[in-house]
Amino acid sequence: MLQAWAADAVLLRADHFFWILGAPMQKSVEGLLRGILRSVLLGLSQSIGNTDAIKHICSSRWQSPTANGMWSRQELKQMLTRLSSESGVKSFFLIDALDECEPQDRLNDLANEIAWLSQLKNVKICVSCRPWDVFTRKFETSISLRLDQLTRRDMETYIGARLTSTEEEKGWNTEFCNETRAAKQLIQNIARSAEGVFLWTELVVTAMCSEIRKGSNVERLSQIISDFPSDLDEYFPSTHL
Amino acid sequence: MALMSIGSRTYDNIRARDNSRIHLGDVYNDNRSPEERALKAILESLSYPGMTDHRDALAEAHERTFDWTFLKGETAFLVERDQDGHEEWDRYDTVNMNFRSWLEQENHGLFCVTGKPGSGKSSFMYAV
């Protein structure tokens, strides 16, 4: 698919997965730029088979890579610019979990750099992040996908299967087995309330299964949804999912 | 020790007394051209510890739990297998079309996937 976009050009790819538990460099803007520059240079050297293009892109570092000390953001961006505009290759960057980049109070800095990367010639970027203003406002004009909408039907299928099999196990209630209106509504309600969060669904469904085993009816089960915190950040304040 | 060899190379001017050891480690690297060495040095200077930590962790999680499959060049982007192993092709048509047309077309540089914590963002990204 990407090759269709690249047509006859060499297609390079770089991935970066920000991780809140990762090394400091890994979850920084500089770490991101270093990682993707390294990946595309490596890809370029492998696909072209000679180093002329890279020598040109990295001319300031070619003679002595460590002479200029640490890579500065400016230098990294300069090389990425040269790579995208002068080497004739097309690049795809996949950048996961923007919200896990640090420092957390300067995520707008990252959002700006992503926007900068995305306007480079011959570059496409796919990013993922929590729906936070700092990102959604900046990326307003980009094409986006909300995963919770995508997975709702999967959730319903899963929830229905779990509740039905628990009923069957006990054999004294048949709301889910018979797919009554109330049962269907409950399933849809859980899936909607989950907002795409699999762990939330799992916790709620597990609680419901134990209620079913106690003989509770659908009305009682509905109560469980409102009893649960809607956000796992409240449920597990210190985890990073 | 009057003579040491590594592979087909012989170093007859190296001497060591008694039980001394001589490390000839990276001598074979001399085979590489100055360009290759410069490239390797640049790649190394860009590397840092932990660069791919999370990707490696995701690879493990992906293998265990995730059932979305990325098919290159096929009509469906994401497919799901049911319990009997049959693939369902049409359920992700919307994402398929959006994502595919973005991948294939020229005009937009950025595609943004959003979701709450735990909604499968990283798994989705890993599957791409």
Characterise this structure.
The complex is a heterodimer of chains A (241) and B (128). With 241 residues, chain A is mainly alpha-helical. Chain A folds into 2 domains: 2-136, no CATH class; 149-235, no CATH class. Chain A contains 12 helices and 4 strands, in the order H-E-H-H-H-H-E-H-E-H-E-H-H-H-H-H. The mean pLDDT of chain A is 88. In chain B, helix 2 (53-65) packs across helix 4 (121-127). In chain B, a hairpin with a 5-residue loop joins strand 4 and strand 5. Chain B is flat, with a radius of gyration of 26 Å. Helix content of chain B is 35%, strand content 15%. Chain B contains 4 helices and 6 strands. The model of chain B is unreliable at 1-11, 64-82 and 86-93 (pLDDT under 50). Chain B has 2 domains: 4-46, no CATH class; 53-127, no CATH class. At the A-B interface, helix 1, helix 2, helix 6, strand 3 and strand 4 of A face helix 1, helix 2, helix 3, strand 6 and helix 4 of B. Strand 3 (123-129) of chain A pairs parallel with strand 6 of chain B, so a sheet runs across the interface.
